[in-house]
Design a protein that fits this description.
Largest sheet: 3 strands, antiparallel
Strand content: 5-15%
Number of helices: 3
Order of helices and strands: HHHEEE
Number of strands: 3
Shape: flat
């Protein structure tokens, strides 16, 4: 089966040769996988992993435009993203769901 046939079968609740898969990870994982598989592009890496789909996200996935000048940003899915620098590593993001915060 091709990836397209596999995904369409799953969407139609039919049994395919296997479950369609996708992949996403932090940039460090992508770098390690590119090195492991000897790939240079995301497309080549996804082929090596046997991925059937690509994640397509809106342009403001990271944060809302009105939060551009704030340290704490909100994603379009109501998640807070706080950038903090840690000595010796890349900037890390801590995510907290707005829904999980209860009024005091």
């Amino acid at each position: 089966m091709t990836s397209k046939e596999r995904v369409l079968a799953a969407a139609d609740h039919r049994v395919g040769d296997r479950t369609p898969i996708t992949f996403d990870a932090e940039s460090e994982i992508y770098a390690a996988l590119h090195e492991h598989f000897g790939t240079a592009t995301k497309e080549a890496l996804f082929d090596a992993l046997g991925c059937d789909t690509w994640m397509i996200l809106p342009g403001n996935f990271g944060s809302l435009e009105e939060d551009a000048d704030r340290d704490e940003k909100r994603s379009i899915w109501a998640r807070r993203l706080t950038a903090r620098a840690k000595e010796g590593s890349a900037i890390r993001r801590r995510r907290r769901s707005l829904k999980s915060r209860r009024p005091v």
